[in-house]
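---------- Forwarded message ----------

FYI, see the Cx9C motif-containing protein 4, mitochondrial record below. Original note from H. follows.
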Amino acid sequence: MSKVNSCQTEACDLQSCLNRNTYAPEKCEKNLRSLYECCQRFYDLTEGRGESTSCPLPNVVQRWMKDHPKDKKH
C-alpha cells in the first residue's frame, strides 16, 4: 500500500506550534491530541493497514490514546 499524506495538516499545525513555542510541548497539547485523533481515525478506516507520512505506527497511536484519555482531569 502506498503512503498517503493523511493527517498532514494536523502534523504541520503541531510542528508550527512547537516552533512558535520554542519546542515547549506542554503548550501544544491540543495540537498533539488533534494529530493522534486524526491518526486513530485514519487507522480505523484502513483497519490498521494504512501508512501515513504524518502518523506514528498504529500501535504507538493506540498506546498514546490509551495513556492520554480525553476526559482526564489536569
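H. also flagged this: The chain is about 55% helix and 0% strand.
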